[in-house]
Amino acid sequence: MNKLRALYLSVNSWSKLSKLPAPFASGIAALLAAPRFRHLSLNGWSLEQDISDLKSTLSPCLATLATLSLEKISESKCIQGSSESKEASVLRLEGLRTLELYDVKHPLLEKGLVQCPNLECLLLKLYQPKALQLPPCIPAKLAKLVVHGRVIDPPPVFGKIICPSELSVEIKGPSYGRCVSWFQGCVNSLPFPRELRRITLKCDMDFSRERSIDYPAAENYAALFTFLEELDNFGKLQHVDMNILITAPADVTPGDGEETTEVEKIRDMFAPLLESGALEVELVIQRWVFEYGRHEVVLRITA
Known about the structure:
The protein is an alpha/beta fold.
């Protein structure tokens, strides 16, 4: 147990963290107190309105916790006359460097009940129909921002504070053009987009239920090039990694000339950035193999 570094606590039905059986709660506390413990993931839990249960749970690792992942977190319903007027105190996580948020329905972040003044990396998984507002607990000196989203949902609203130097965007969509548009909206939402030094863009397109696949169009490449070139010329951008993942129907295999065509298209559209070393591109086509129960790569293009 002294070597424990990470713990994943997941439940299926919004169980209350405050109602854990005493032996189980004591066992968790002992695990979190391990000298090398650094990473905690909570999935599916319901927290008290004043997050007193979260504070109690994290108390053994307040000084050492480096990564906290909150997924599908809800607010416990108050029993009439219980803690409705209870004043909440702030949970301050001085050692926290990475915060991951996905489907957090508890107002602990919006109300400033959690503070992480030394946070370096924020990961947002945005699978919701309304634009996410950046919580006030995120410090202005945040260095890295990671965003996972879908084109059917709006890009996040970052406000006027943060100034990250590194941005990573993973976007799922039915076409490359829509993925690029979502990515541009994400960058433009940053208060200081020209301060970005490194960008990672991953476009994930699934054509497994279609009859064919759609490669990115030249005009979509051109639109992205123009956007990146402006950041490169007038900002501090140093490097861009772009990954295009296409899932093809199980019975579709790329033709003999398609690899050459796509390589030429990428090199033509992004020539200045590729020649300067500011851009690296990888296009991967995969398909599901039912016999093996996994994806296999049928084409990989790098430029």
